[in-house]
Design goal:
It is built from no helices and 4 strands. By secondary structure, the protein is mainly beta. It has one domain. Strands 1-2-3-4 form a 4-stranded antiparallel sheet, with no helix packed on it. It is elongated, with a radius of gyration of 14 Å. About 5% of the residues are buried. The structure holds zinc ion (ZN). The site of zinc ion has 8 residues, from loops.
Length: about 70
């Protein structure tokens, strides 16, 4: 087993973000994004958003969660 600094993930779920409106950082075309929600041992939850270009330019990247509905609560 690899040992990393990451906490143990007990559950993870991927879902496509339908109202994502970010752009590909390589070619500027609208990108698609998928959110991965991970529940961690100990009770934490974290969400990672990975965007991928809709064109086959191959770009993918981690992005901040940015949607039209903007359910941002801090
Ligand atoms: Zn692209």
């Amino acid at each position: 087993m690899n040992s990393t600094d990451s906490p143990l993930v007990v559950y993870s779920r991927e879902s496509e973000i339908l109202d994502y409106f970010g752009k590909c950082e390589a070619c500027g075309y609208p990108a698609r994004a998928t959110a991965t929600t991970e529940m961690l041992a100990g009770g934490g939850v974290r969400t990672a958003v990975v965007a991928a270009c809709s064109l086959p330019c191959g770009w993918t990247g981690r992005v901040p969660l940015t949607t039209m509905t903007g359910r941002v609560r801090r």
